[in-house]
Protein backbone atom coordinates (compact mmCIF):
# COMPACT_ATOMS: atom_id res chain seq x y z
CA UNK A 1 0.00 0.00 0.00
CA UNK A 2 1.56 3.25 -1.08
CA UNK A 3 1.94 5.88 1.59
CA UNK A 4 2.44 9.56 0.97
CA UNK A 5 3.53 12.19 3.46
CA UNK A 6 -0.04 12.73 4.60
CA UNK A 7 -0.52 9.04 5.34
CA UNK A 8 2.56 8.92 7.52
CA UNK A 9 1.16 11.66 9.75
CA UNK A 10 -1.93 9.63 10.63
CA UNK A 11 -1.45 7.47 13.70
CA UNK A 12 -3.35 4.21 13.65
CA UNK A 13 -3.92 1.97 16.62
CA UNK A 14 -5.12 -1.62 16.62
CA UNK A 15 -6.74 -2.90 19.81
CA UNK A 16 -7.99 -6.42 20.37
CA UNK A 17 -11.44 -6.74 21.98
CA UNK A 18 -12.91 -10.10 23.04
CA UNK A 19 -16.55 -11.09 23.51
CA UNK A 20 -17.10 -13.72 26.21
CA UNK A 21 -20.02 -15.37 27.94
CA UNK A 22 -22.06 -18.56 27.91
CA UNK A 23 -23.14 -20.29 24.71
CA UNK A 24 -26.17 -18.83 22.89
CA UNK A 25 -26.24 -15.49 24.73
CA UNK A 26 -25.94 -13.74 21.35
CA UNK A 27 -22.21 -12.97 21.13
CA UNK A 28 -21.93 -13.64 17.38
CA UNK A 29 -25.06 -11.63 16.60
CA UNK A 30 -23.79 -8.69 18.65
CA UNK A 31 -20.61 -8.73 16.57
CA UNK A 32 -22.41 -9.11 13.23
CA UNK A 33 -24.91 -6.37 14.16
CA UNK A 34 -22.09 -3.98 15.06
CA UNK A 35 -19.72 -4.85 12.21
CA UNK A 36 -22.14 -5.54 9.35
CA UNK A 37 -25.56 -4.47 10.68
CA UNK A 38 -26.75 -8.04 10.23
CA UNK A 39 -28.73 -10.38 12.45
CA UNK A 40 -29.35 -14.09 11.87
CA UNK A 41 -32.24 -15.48 13.89
CA UNK A 42 -31.10 -19.04 13.16
CA UNK A 43 -27.35 -18.57 13.58
CA UNK A 44 -25.46 -21.72 14.45
CA UNK A 45 -22.73 -21.93 17.08
CA UNK A 46 -19.54 -20.29 15.86
CA UNK A 47 -16.88 -22.71 14.63
CA UNK A 48 -13.31 -21.56 14.06
CA UNK A 49 -11.76 -18.22 14.91
CA UNK A 50 -13.90 -15.27 13.91
CA UNK A 51 -13.09 -11.60 14.20
CA UNK A 52 -14.14 -8.35 12.58
CA UNK A 53 -12.14 -5.14 12.38
CA UNK A 54 -13.98 -1.85 12.91
CA UNK A 55 -12.58 1.69 12.80
CA UNK A 56 -13.49 4.88 14.57
CA UNK A 57 -11.78 8.24 14.97
CA UNK A 58 -10.81 9.48 18.44
CA UNK A 59 -8.89 12.72 18.99
CA UNK A 60 -8.02 12.84 15.30
CA UNK A 61 -6.45 9.37 15.38
CA UNK A 62 -7.74 6.30 13.61
CA UNK A 63 -8.49 3.59 16.14
CA UNK A 64 -9.19 0.09 14.88
CA UNK A 65 -10.79 -2.53 17.08
CA UNK A 66 -10.23 -6.15 16.13
CA UNK A 67 -13.23 -7.81 17.80
CA UNK A 68 -12.98 -11.54 18.51
CA UNK A 69 -15.79 -14.06 18.99
CA UNK A 70 -15.19 -17.16 21.16
CA UNK A 71 -15.52 -19.55 18.22
CA UNK A 72 -17.86 -21.92 20.01
CA UNK A 73 -15.18 -22.98 22.47
CA UNK A 74 -17.30 -21.84 25.41
CA UNK A 75 -19.64 -24.80 24.84
CA UNK A 76 -16.80 -27.04 26.02
CA UNK A 77 -15.52 -24.65 28.72
CA UNK A 78 -12.29 -24.60 26.77
CA UNK A 79 -11.73 -20.98 25.82
CA UNK A 80 -7.96 -20.90 25.55
CA UNK A 81 -5.59 -18.46 27.19
CA UNK A 82 -4.45 -17.48 23.67
CA UNK A 83 -7.92 -16.08 23.00
CA UNK A 84 -7.49 -13.54 25.82
CA UNK A 85 -3.84 -12.71 25.17
CA UNK A 86 -3.27 -9.12 24.11
CA UNK A 87 -6.89 -8.07 24.69
CA UNK A 88 -7.38 -4.43 25.64
CA UNK A 89 -11.15 -4.69 25.99
CA UNK A 90 -13.86 -7.23 26.75
CA UNK A 91 -17.63 -7.49 26.55
CA UNK A 92 -18.94 -10.01 29.09
CA UNK A 93 -22.35 -11.04 27.80
CA UNK A 94 -25.33 -12.72 29.45
CA UNK A 95 -28.90 -13.33 28.27
CA UNK A 96 -31.48 -11.41 30.33
CA UNK A 97 -33.97 -14.25 29.78
CA UNK A 98 -31.67 -16.96 31.20
CA UNK A 99 -30.55 -16.43 34.79
CA UNK A 100 -27.91 -19.17 34.58
CA UNK A 101 -25.96 -17.11 32.03
CA UNK A 102 -25.95 -14.18 34.48
CA UNK A 103 -24.82 -16.40 37.35
CA UNK A 104 -21.84 -17.54 35.25
CA UNK A 105 -20.57 -13.98 34.68
CA UNK A 106 -18.25 -14.31 37.69
CA UNK A 107 -16.52 -17.32 36.14
CA UNK A 108 -15.96 -15.45 32.88
CA UNK A 109 -14.54 -12.44 34.72
CA UNK A 110 -12.22 -14.69 36.70
CA UNK A 111 -11.01 -16.34 33.50
CA UNK A 112 -10.50 -12.97 31.83
CA UNK A 113 -8.53 -11.63 34.81
CA UNK A 114 -6.42 -14.78 34.95
CA UNK A 115 -5.44 -14.81 31.28
CA UNK A 116 -5.36 -11.16 30.20
CA UNK A 117 -1.94 -9.52 30.22
CA UNK A 118 -2.95 -5.86 29.95
CA UNK A 119 -5.32 -3.39 31.57
CA UNK A 120 -8.67 -4.44 30.12
CA UNK A 121 -11.67 -2.13 29.64
CA UNK A 122 -14.65 -4.30 30.61
CA UNK A 123 -18.37 -3.97 29.98
CA UNK A 124 -21.12 -6.20 31.32
CA UNK A 125 -23.74 -6.66 28.60
CA UNK A 126 -27.25 -7.92 29.26
CA UNK A 127 -28.27 -9.02 25.78
CA UNK A 128 -31.73 -9.82 24.36
CA UNK A 129 -33.46 -6.93 26.16
CA UNK A 130 -36.21 -7.28 23.54
CA UNK A 131 -37.36 -10.37 25.51
CA UNK A 132 -38.96 -8.32 28.29
CA UNK A 133 -41.87 -10.74 28.68
CA UNK A 134 -39.56 -13.61 29.70
CA UNK A 135 -36.92 -11.57 31.54
CA UNK A 136 -35.22 -13.43 34.41
CA UNK A 137 -32.55 -10.83 35.30
CA UNK A 138 -33.59 -7.29 36.22
CA UNK A 139 -31.78 -4.16 35.05
CA UNK A 140 -31.00 -3.34 38.69
CA UNK A 141 -29.33 -6.74 39.19
CA UNK A 142 -27.14 -6.15 36.16
CA UNK A 143 -26.22 -2.65 37.34
CA UNK A 144 -25.44 -3.91 40.85
CA UNK A 145 -23.11 -6.65 39.58
CA UNK A 146 -21.35 -4.24 37.24
CA UNK A 147 -20.89 -1.72 40.04
CA UNK A 148 -19.49 -4.34 42.41
CA UNK A 149 -16.99 -5.53 39.77
CA UNK A 150 -16.06 -2.09 38.46
CA UNK A 151 -17.53 -2.68 35.00
CA UNK A 152 -19.45 -0.55 32.54
CA UNK A 153 -23.00 -1.85 32.08
CA UNK A 154 -25.49 -1.81 29.25
CA UNK A 155 -28.47 -3.83 28.11
CA UNK A 156 -28.55 -4.54 24.38
CA UNK A 157 -30.58 -6.24 21.69
CA UNK A 158 -28.74 -7.59 18.68
CA UNK A 159 -32.19 -8.32 17.22
CA UNK A 160 -33.39 -4.71 17.10
CA UNK A 161 -29.97 -2.97 17.40
CA UNK A 162 -30.65 -1.41 20.81
CA UNK A 163 -27.40 -0.03 22.31
CA UNK A 164 -25.15 -2.38 20.28
CA UNK A 165 -23.05 0.34 18.63
CA UNK A 166 -22.95 2.33 21.87
CA UNK A 167 -21.69 -0.65 23.91
CA UNK A 168 -18.78 -1.36 21.58
CA UNK A 169 -17.86 2.31 21.21
CA UNK A 170 -17.80 2.91 24.98
CA UNK A 171 -15.33 0.02 25.38
CA UNK A 172 -13.14 1.21 22.48
CA UNK A 173 -13.07 4.79 23.81
CA UNK A 174 -12.17 3.53 27.30
CA UNK A 175 -9.31 1.48 25.84
CA UNK A 176 -8.01 4.56 24.09
CA UNK A 177 -8.30 6.55 27.33
CA UNK A 178 -6.42 3.87 29.30
CA UNK A 179 -3.66 3.72 26.70
CA UNK A 180 -3.37 7.51 26.45
CA UNK A 181 -3.02 7.75 30.23
CA UNK A 182 -0.23 5.18 30.22
CA UNK A 183 1.56 6.95 27.37
CA UNK A 184 1.55 10.18 29.35
CA UNK A 185 3.04 8.43 32.37
CA UNK A 186 5.52 6.06 30.80
CA UNK A 187 8.09 6.44 28.03
CA UNK A 188 8.69 2.67 28.01
CA UNK A 189 4.98 2.02 27.50
CA UNK A 190 4.99 4.46 24.60
CA UNK A 191 7.72 2.41 22.97
CA UNK A 192 5.80 -0.80 23.67
CA UNK A 193 2.59 0.60 22.20
CA UNK A 194 4.34 1.41 18.94
CA UNK A 195 4.01 -2.32 18.26
CA UNK A 196 0.26 -1.78 18.10
CA UNK A 197 0.45 1.08 15.61
CA UNK A 198 -0.36 -0.52 12.32
CA UNK A 199 -1.61 0.25 8.88
CA UNK A 200 -4.26 -2.24 7.77
CA UNK A 201 -5.25 -2.68 4.15
CA UNK A 202 -8.42 -4.62 4.91
CA UNK A 203 -6.96 -7.85 3.54
CA UNK A 204 -7.94 -10.77 5.77
CA UNK A 205 -4.65 -12.56 5.16
CA UNK A 206 -2.70 -9.48 6.16
CA UNK A 207 -4.85 -9.12 9.28
CA UNK A 208 -4.05 -12.71 10.18
CA UNK A 209 -0.31 -11.96 9.92
CA UNK A 210 -0.70 -8.88 12.10
CA UNK A 211 -2.71 -10.91 14.57
CA UNK A 212 0.17 -13.29 15.20
CA UNK A 213 2.65 -10.40 15.26
CA UNK A 214 0.81 -8.73 18.10
CA UNK A 215 0.22 -11.90 20.09
CA UNK A 216 -3.51 -12.05 19.45
CA UNK A 217 -3.66 -15.77 18.73
TrEMBL record:
Gene3D superfamilies: P-loop containing nucleotide triphosphate hydrolases (3.40.50.300). SMART domains: RAB (SM00175), RAN (SM00176), RAS (SM00173), RHO (SM00174). The keyword Nucleotide-binding applies. One of its GO terms (cellular component) is endomembrane system. It comes from the Eukaryota. One of its GO terms (molecular function) is GTP binding. Its main location: membrane. InterPro entries: P-loop_NTPase, Rab_GTPases_membrane_traffic, Small_GTP-bd, Small_GTPase. It is a lipid-anchor. Keywords: GTP-binding, Lipoprotein, Membrane, Nucleotide-binding, Prenylation. It is found in: Endomembrane system. The keyword GTP-binding applies. Belongs to the small GTPase superfamily. Rab family. This is Uncharacterized protein. It comes from Rhynchospora tenuis. The lineage of its organism: Eukaryota, Viridiplantae, Streptophyta, Embryophyta, Tracheophyta.
